[in-house]
Write a structure and sequence with these properties.
The chain is of the alpha+beta class and 272 residues long. The chain has five helices and 15 strands. It is elongated and about 125 Å long.
């Protein structure tokens, strides 16, 4: 039984590491837009959305959201939207490095250019012309991660400075020309951007197939796309095979030559 203490110590260390990793991100503000309180698979706690502006919707619960585990589905299934601009207030007290994480999923439209909007932090554009469907498609999680800095009552993001008036800044979803702005969930952490949990990359099976083909040295022919029509019949009248014509004349020419040679011989015989 000498192995038991060693296994116990390793198990305790593993549990401690898991607990530390789940508590590594120092979240100072969060919201599950249009939804209730929730803790995601990374241990980040989202507060209930108590905003009075706009509309809360859980229509996204009618579908599965891809790219995230089951525990995180709800963060992309509920949302708040509005027919005009709408904002959340984010408390900021101390100087330091921060990261704003915005979570989105398109659960309504089936094409790009149907919902396009901007996002501002303290009056500065941090996401421009966001078209969720164009980025990832329908029913797929999409995160926007924006690092920023607070120093001497100024917010610095994307190289631009703006004054912090009071003890909070505004996160504004700005209406554009295409439908309404929306938000599924968001949080602000006092952390380096490297500490923020990220979504897995999108699956690109076509690219993977091409890479495999290149490694084999024999690229495979791609099957036709659904829109490509396979023509079973050629168009226009049939054209005579030129080689068939050549083959027939090859027999005729020697016959004419033989006849031409025999006629003079026949004439000479008749004279005799």
């Amino acid at each position: 039984m000498g192995w038991w203490p060693s296994v116990t110590v390793q198990l305790l260390l593993l549990l401690c590491n898991v607990a530390q990793s789940r508590a590594a991100v120092n979240v100072i503000w969060s919201v599950n837009a249009g939804g209730e309180r929730h803790t995601d698979s990374s241990g980040i706690k989202y507060n209930k959305d108590t905003a009075a502006v706009g509309e809360a919707s859980d229509y996204g619960r009618t579908m599965t959201i891809f790219r995230v585990p089951q525990q995180d589905q709800i963060l992309y299934q509920t949302e708040r939207y509005h027919t005009s601009d709408f904002s959340y207030n984010i408390p900021l007290k101390d100087d330091g490095d921060y990261v704003l994480v915005l979570k989105f999923s398109e659960v309504w439209f089936n094409a790009a250019h149907q919902k396009v909007f901007n996002v501002q932090l303290n009056g500065e554009d941090v996401v421009e012309q966001l078209d969720i469907y164009k980025e990832v498609g329908r029913g797929v999680a999409h995160d926007e991660i924006i690092p920023f800095k607070v120093k001497s009552k100024k917010l610095i993001v994307n190289g631009k400075k703006s004054d912090i008036l009071g003890k909070s800044v505004s996160l504004t979803l700005v209406k554009g020309y295409h439908d309404n702005p929306k938000l599924n969930a968001a949080y602000v952490a006092k952390a380096a951007v490297e500490e923020i949990p990220t979504l897995p990359p999108l699956d690109t099976p076509e690219e993977e197939d091409e890479l495999e083909d290149e490694e084999d040295g024999e690229p495979l022919q791609k099957p036709p796309k659904p829109d490509d029509k396979i023509r079973k019949h050629t168009s226009g009248p049939k054209v005579q095979n030129p080689y068939a014509v050549s083959d027939s004349t090859s027999y005729i020419i020697p016959i004419f030559a033989a006849v031409a040679a025999f006629v003079p011989l026949l004439y000479c015989l008749c004279k005799i």
